[in-house]
Design a protein that fits this description.
567 residues; alpha/beta; five-stranded parallel β-sheet; globular; binds flavin-adenine dinucleotide
């Protein structure tokens, strides 16, 4: 039975949010007229797959086409009009103005309900020389066709990727796979800003280990024409430091901004972050217009603040929810947590919820712990450490965010933690989660359980933590750094100024340790030094554990980072 009486539903934008809304609308209303307008020549294509087509992992361009206008007509009876731009909205008359891009013909189309899923466009800041035929953005299939055409005859070409967000890094990885000389130039001091700096440091090491040159904290100030002395097929990328990077092509991965031109011209409310303002039913300030996807502002699930979060999952779910609301099924979209994942060569990096920066900005108190549990049982071959960080509230232990980086098992841990965030779980809940275990897949205490338990230890006052960025300021007159690793581990490197007593000797050598100073213990990952700090505090010493231990400290040291330490 249909949910409500037939309507004309018009959708602007035919990819993630738009196509999802259209299909859901049809499933709820067989007799509605559903018209989807798309400016480009493709609908429902896999934007997320574009970098992998450039790198050749996705061999066929057709694989990127999840649906075509014809298949959408056949299966969903959708009226899909490609190469057709919506150029205006007459809200009073409930009509849109439309232009066919090939013929220039303009016409009007009326609607009962209008859904805007116009997406976000790549940022092109006004940097001198930014417009050049060999400077590429990556948003749609024609964009990657241009990159493929450029790269076809390019042997050992030099590509400079400007911007170290996930699109920039995926492109850097894929161009490197194709044998290009790749440089990433990033304005901020780290890539992947949703991660905290000590976590992003693993990505820096992985990029360098794979031959990607990395310039951090050094924004691009100009693209200059090449010269005889500095030949290049595109530009000389000039950094603020004065460094000059000859580039045969430039990939602009500087972020995206919501496409709100139509909404603004129609007088719809726009939020302070620059996205279309919607309510929890995804309705705009006009009761006949809904908006979804990268073009809207969403409520951040942790801070509660308005945010711009451009991700495919939220866009798809919002499309479905908008269609539900239009067709009489009240449905709410409450929050986005920014759960994201990226593969970078052999590493996978995933995050969900808030990071330290966003919590500080929102004045939300938090505690942070780092650990490096194995991806599965250590006795079963192939276990790899996961660098795992969780942030939680200091009172009741509510989970606030998580970041994980490693070679194996990152995706499932981040998805479990994202589920926990959505459920409003605390670290006590994490400790109690019953997760699937057999040796090839996990451990009897899964990394998520261990994170919960380690956080419980902090909340219970069983252990106090020193963070990686506090080590440099430790005063040897008041603090002793104690390395409790094995001698062979210490031989491979240690924190300068630390004293060495392996964990198993600590009880016998307590008399060598000072009672008038605080002792900060560290091992490789933090687990043995937690045991050491428990021994010490129960023998009357003032003891702390270095959160994340040597691994986290080491990766944040610039000299160490250059040596490509591995997880
Ligand atoms: P889009 O999918 O961008 O669709 C908007 C469409 O609206 C566009 O095709 C545009 O042409 C059309 N349009 C705009 N204005 C008009 C108009 N006036 N008239 C007609 N048509 C119009 N997200 C993830 O979660 N994971 C990933 O791995 C991931 N990888 C990505 C990789 C790349 C290279 C890119 C570009 C994006 C990636 N994303 C990823 C983000 C994800 O693709 C977007 O969040 C999602 O597509 C947003 O959906 P949307 O419907 O809001 O916008």
């Amino acid at each position: 039975m249909e949910t409500s009486s037939p309507k004309t539903i018009v959708i602007v934008g035919g990819v993630a949010g738009g196509a999802s809304a259209a299909a859901r609308a049809r499933r709820l209303c067989e007799h509605c007229e559903i018209i989807m307008f798309e400016r480009g020549e493709h609908v429902s294509f896999a934007n997320c797959g574009l970098p992998y087509f450039v790198g050749g992992e996705i061999a066929e361009q057709d694989s990127l086409l999840v649906q075509t206008p014809e298949s959408l007509k056949a299966r969903f009876n959708l009226d899909v009009r490609i190469k057709t731009e919506v150029i205006g909205i007459d809200r009073a008359a409930r009509r849109i103005q439309v232009r066919e891009l090939e013929t220039g013909r303009e016409y009007e189309q009326s609607y009962d309900a209008l859904i805007l899923s116009t997406g976000a466009s790549p940022l092109r800041p006004p940097i001198p020389g930014i417009d050049h035929p060999n400077h590429f953005v990556v948003r749609n299939i024609p964009d990657v066709e241009r990159i493929m055409a450029w790269s076809k005859d390019c042997q050992r070409c030099r590509a400079v990727v400007v911007g170290g967000g996930y699109i920039g890094l995926e492109m850097a990885e894929q161009l490197r796979h194709r044998g290009f000389d790749v440089t990433v130039a990033q304005g901020p001091p780290q890539v992947m800003t949703p991660f905290d700096p000590e976590m992003a440091a693993w990505l820096h090491a992985e990029l360098r280990a794979n031959g990607v040159a990395l310039h951090l904290n050094d924004p691009v100030v100009a693209f200059e024409p090449p010269s005889e002395q500095e030949p290049a097929r595109a530009s000389i990328v000039v950094l603020k430091s004065g460094q000059r990077l000859p580039a045969d092509s430039v990939i602009l991965g500087l972020g995206v901004k919501p496409e709100i031109g139509l909404a603004t011209a129609a007088g719809l409310e726009i939020g302070a972050r620059g996205g279309i303002r919607v309510d929890e039913h995804l309705q705009t300030s006009d009761p006949h217009i809904w908006a979804v996807g990268d073009a809207i502002e969403v409520r951040d699930g942790v801070t509660g603040k308005w945010a711009l979060i451009a991700l495919a999952g939220p866009a798809n779910r919002q499309g479905r929810i908008a269609a539900d609301n239009i067709l009489g099924r009240p449905s709410r979209y409450e929050h986005t947590w920014g759960t994201a994942i990226v593969r970078l060569f052999k590493l996978t990096a995933g995050c969900t919820g808030a990071n330290e920066k966003s919590l500080r900005r929102a004045s939300i108190p938090f505690l942070a712990i780092h650990l490096h549990p194995g991806s599965h049982a250590g006795y079963y071959p192939g276990a790899e450490p996961i660098a795992l960080k969780i942030l939680f509230a200091p009172d009741a232990g509510k989970l606030l965010g998580a970041q994980a980086i490693g070679h194996d098992g990152v995706d499932k841990r981040i998805d479990v933690l994202a589920t926990a965030l959505k459920a409003g779980m605390t670290v006590h809940d994490l400790a109690e989660l019953e997760l699937a275990y057999a040796p090839p897949y996990g451990s009897a205490k899964d990394p998520v359980n261990l994170a919960g338990m380690a956080a419980q230890n902090v909340l219970a006052g069983d252990v106090a933590l020193t963070q990686w960025n506090e080590v440099a300021a430790l005063d040897p007159r008041t603090t002793l750094l104690l390395d409790v690793r094995r001698p062979d581990e210490r031989a491979r490197g240690f924190i300068p100024g630390s004293t060495h007593i392996p964990l198993d000797e600590v009880r016998q050598r307590l008399n060598e340790l000072p009672r008038d100073r605080e002792i900060v213990a560290y091992c490789q990952s933090g687990q043995r030094s937690y045991n050491a700090s428990r021994i010490l505090s129960q023998h009357g010493f003032r003891a702390r554990n270095l959160s994340g231990a040597y691994r986290t400290w080491q990766i944040t040291q610039p000299s160490q980072n250059e040596n490509h330490p591995s997880l």
